[in-house]
Amino acid sequence: MTPLITVDDVKNYEETKHKFLEEFYQVDQEQNALKFDTHVDLPINLKRLTTSTVQYPDKDDTSDLFPGMSDRYHGNALAGFLTFAHTPMESHCFDSNSLESVEYDIAIVGAPYDTGVSYRPGARYGPDGIRSATRRLGATYSPFRPGFNVFNNWAKIVDCGNAPMTPIDNRIALDQLYRAERASLKHMTTEKNPGKHPRIMTLGGDHTITFSAIRAAYEKYGKVSVIHFDSHLDTVDPYHMNKNVTDYAALNHGTFLYWAHRKGYLTDTNMHVGLRGWYEEPDDPKRDTTQSKFSKILARDIDSIGITGIIEKIKQRVGESYVYITFDIDVLDPAHAMATGTVEPGGFSTREALQILDGLQGLNVVGADICEVSPPFDVSEVTTQTAGEVVRSLLALMVLKPVV
């Protein structure tokens, strides 16, 4: 059986390549251009290279050498610093001495934390994993909202980097995130922003980080209605679940909403979306409703009421209140997002979730997060790219509706 590529094929290719580089490649120093000798009979696959002269910009022209140009015609998605979708990097978000000099409207904050999980870790790598997967995103225009551009709009969006969160002590780490976001919310906004305070998009991190983010948002906006995209309740009473649990360990990724409501950060009009995780006890749904004031949309409800029905139920529930949206990536089916700590089959598709998020346009979104993204369990950046798209939709909700 003859091999598909022979030794002679490889030899001829190498000879042609070297001959092309040495004999046909010419540099015109005066014109600052590459030229090819068109009198040489080139192989058919190289002839197209001889049909034009490559023109370069002036040697001192640096107009195309800046980050954010992810367009294939103007730049390289791998250029610049690693920020979310090439947004400008701001290193003074957490600096209390820069509150008057640094202004922005929306801050992206990473929360590298995963020591509150009950199963698979790895979400501490979520913030940078999501950023890396958004290298191809940039100031482009939506095919679903004609003329709308998330990043080239009225709002100044910056990436503040990751908040320092110690992996040694959970409570200290969560307090670090709270203080980082608290400081970030004290900065000035731009003149185009009718609101008094910036808003924060947090990149988690396991779901415990939402407690700190809601706490910081509450101090600026008062009580918030939480829209909780998740396959699990996360309103578990830690002392009912385990009577031997210590107070120190009682705050984790399955109890943070229980504590957020107990602390008075939440309204009584909250909503779970996408639930399908099986309950530990039959009374868990009742306690969720009576103690933490959450209504529920199950994952399978999409088959009966559809995407439009889900959007309508969410909007009716939260009304005109200030809204915080938290999006656990495990609300998606593991076929669409396998890199997470506690996967549950039977969830939304990526398209369905994005349709629901986009349908929430008009709500008073004061903050949001994406969490439980665990890059070590990912395949070909499927989950992190999906997370990046979710974040873009959440940012769009903030841009489309300024909060006064």
UniProtKB/TrEMBL annotation:
It comes from [Candida] arabinofermentans NRRL YB-2248. One of its GO terms (biological process) is putrescine biosynthetic process from arginine, via agmatine. One of its GO terms (molecular function) is metal ion binding. It holds the Pfam family Arginase. This is Agmatinase. Belongs to the arginase family. Gene3D superfamilies: Ureohydrolase domain.
